Amino acid sequence: MTETLDIIIIGAGPIGLACGIAAQNAGLSHVILEKGCLVNSLYNYPLNMTFFSTADRLEIGNLPFPSIHAKPNRSEALEYYRRVADAKKLNINLFEEVTNITSLGEQYGVQTTKGTYRGHHVIIAVGFYDIPNLLNIPGEELPKVRHYYFDPHYYYRQKVLVVGANNSSADVALETWRKGAEVTMVIREAELGRVKYWTKPDLENRIAEGSIKAYFNSKLTAIRETEVDILTPEGAITLENDYVMAMTGYQPNFDFLRKIGVHLSPDFKRYPFYNPETMETNLKGVFLAGVICGGMDTHVWFIENSRVHADQIVNTILARRAALV
């Protein structure tokens, strides 16, 4: 495109939408580029997922989020953010993946699978749901291994092994068990991890009564077509198995950040560099917003506490413009 935009936003999740709204309110031209559907990560959440937060903490653009539940679910969130995008008439291009960002002096060129854009500023507001953390064990490439979970009905009368100790693992274990699966959990730690307060007692009771078998202080070591190997404190065991649900978490696209020149911390967390007051990276005019700011520490930033990034960034841009006048 020949037009030079004020802001190019990468990612049409809730925070990307919030950035678009902030740009629009400030009279700044923008486009939001999304490689999938609107709020793509939320769309890929489990069918029956319920948010930890109340609806008011998920609101953006001063638009109320009506919910018939104390805590909204996935379908309500999809409906809400669709209505926000329509009500605000945001400029969004869906199913258009950004492949590179290059410096053009005082501007940036953004290349996508469908074209090229030019902008004065870029906001990277992508999530971390597209790249799973791998187990790195033999057999992980088998089709029976799933890093994503949608509907429990599929696993009726199947032997399901759930790897992990946090919210996703707890939901998968309970939902598949209630739909008739034979469920076993493998947990590296001595106890359950971050689990919603209304879910944790339910799972603990199912484990205590033996309905769900849990191996603590254990790890999955190998996967085969009809069985798995687990290393427990009492020694190695082999179990019959139909599906492995590896709920081991996800990570941002660090390769993309490195490719465009954003600095990452050298440790395992790989925190991307940014100024917490302006959200600007080491690249002048390139900003981060939302969960990507946490690197591998994916339990720091959420919709609730990163909505403010949109105003921080736009206020920074406006202040710099005013200083030039």
From TrEMBL:
Keyword hit for Flavoprotein: yes
Report if keyword Flavoprotein is assigned: yes
Q: Which Gene3D superfamilies match?
A: FAD/NAD(P)-binding domain
Question: What Pfam families does the database record attribute to this sequence?
Answer: Pyr_redox_3
One GO molecular function term of this record is: oxidoreductase activity
* Protein name in UniProt: Pyridine nucleotide-disulfide oxidoreductase
Q: Which UniProt keywords apply?
A: Flavoprotein, Oxidoreductase
